[in-house]
Amino acid sequence: MKRLLVIRHGESIWNAEGRWQGWANIPLSAAGQEQARAAGERLAALSPLRFSAIHASDLSRAHQTAEIISTYVECSPVKAVPGLRERNVGEFQGVLSSDIAVRWPHLADAWNKGVPFDPPGGEVAADFHARILAAIHGLLDAAEEDSTLLAVSHGGVIRALESHLGVRTPRIQNLSGRWVHADDGRLGAGEVFEL
Fold this sequence. Notes:
By secondary structure, the protein is an alpha/beta fold. The chain contains 7 helices and 6 strands.
């Protein structure tokens, strides 16, 4: 069996401002850097856990988080995986959540209820989910048996993965995520990881 921990990046500057990011390449805030250090310390303390590889979305907030964590768990280099990017949110990118509620109230309502929707000009949900699953299967298929991998990604990615697995975490906080296991190519949900 192979195991993969998929976690959300640390707080970014736009997270702190309440802006939707999508594919915007926004760096971590000072608080996000501290969250990444705390996660690194926590993961390093989970003896005898050893990661055989660390992967990250190619967006800076995720890659920077993974780089910080890698110094604590003594696993490098961090491998960038474009397939682990957040969903392209189209016209929502850079917009405050409060403004989305005013400009697109029906979509904001769907978001708050956990109902799938497609942001205007953004990535269609089915395409996003297919991209995420292909990336996750690619990481696990390339890993050796009994490997334990870490992937630093985004909240939307974790939600898409959980949807496929038939589980749901109410709110994906920064540096929280989910363990996934693969046995004969089949994905299964593991426990929730919280900072």
